[in-house]
Write a structure and sequence with these properties.
mainly beta, Int_alpha_beta-p, 37% strand, 29 strands, 5-stranded antiparallel β-sheet, repeat, 4-stranded antiparallel β-sheet
Amino acid sequence: MGVVAAAALIVPVPAGTAGAAADCDLAAAVGDPAATVDGKAGAGAVHVRCGDRWLTLTQGAAGIGDEPEAGDSFGAAVAVADVNGNGAKDLIVGVPGENAGGGLAHVVFDPGRDARPAPLTLGQGAGGAGDRTEAGDGFGTAVSGMRGTVLVGAPGEDLGDGESKTDAGLVHVLGVYGGEVEGVTLLHQDVQDFAGTVEAGDRFGASLAGGDFDKPTAVIGVPGEDVGTKKDAGMVHIVEDPQVAIESAGIGQDSAGISGASEAGDRFGASVSAAWHPALPMRVAVGVPGEDIGDASDAGMVTVLGYDGRQVSEVLAVHQGVAGVPGANESGDGFGTSVAAGVVESASAPPEVSVAIGSPGEDVGGLADAGRVHGAQVGSAPRVDGTVSQGTDGFGGEPLAGARFGAAVAFGPGAAGIVAGAPGHDGKGAAHATPWRALFGTPVVADNWFAGQDGVPTGSRFGASVAGNTAG
């Protein structure tokens, strides 16, 4: 397998170094799609926090397919899932810039372990994912997975007669067993019973979430969906058992019971995440970063949906103008640019789904686009007052203009922690891992990973994507 180790990484990133000295469990993955690898600008790298050290993955490393090339953007999307069902987490990496934007994806099984299956390289056509590779498809723009299944979004795929519907979008659902692709289902809006129709610019699959809930389920964002004359209003699909493409629900802001209204540029579904607990219905967090609120353009909002296998209902709608939410609606905040849903449990309270919300355009203390992460507990009595920034005690004390903290968020390491990326920090990037309780005022010392400092790999946009292992 092509995991590579770097005790102290020096730019440019070398393609391939020695393997890990000992087995360790993946805790978090931090993407740097702008990294220069072997002199190839923007080839991209993914840095895996494994035990107490970092492992660096690139294309062309031992076992990882293809070679680093300028503009590949390896690591533009990352996801963690137990794809091969052996109890250890695997890493899924999107490479949407590969082959003139045709794209690739890789499944790196059991990062950090010496006895591991060979990585799997996925691509359209000969790569086993169905369809064919074309410039601009963006295969790998979004990735997700669950046991036996890998989901890959290609939102730039052209569909329709003569492929006249440019950037309509497609999602590849790949059955993966024994380290090989054993079946492919292609999902788009002309699949039987799907809400909506294939249209130019829909960008179906620009965001993805998936998991083994009460049954295998995928959530697909379609942020470019036009609703009537409202361009890029957006919508989301919830699909049960995606390998056989059973459509369950298509939801937008004009759906019954959903807050707001479909408006041009809302981009409902630009980010999606989902969580489930046996005692709770499935919860789906949907980011709407283009939502205008009052006079504030692109202030953003987040809608949390409940899904019980039969119907969808709104559980919570939140933005910075809601009572209790820190901050105010301001143009360009992008509240909901990223979302992460997870189940937080404690000995003193029943389990409840919680949602981390990235607002990377938020100005903090006069620092433009420093960014903030908000937290909402989605229980019987929702709590929406959670927030942290890079200036929060325990976060390293280094908020900077343009850091865009919250551009990416994920739950993990552990079930009650989150990791948040700040890819613009100091022109190199940063990421922070913290217990969930820090968002609600509990003093903590976060794991503060500033690119190029204290053994953290040097970066270009370190933190542009993040994923975490929620086990343990």
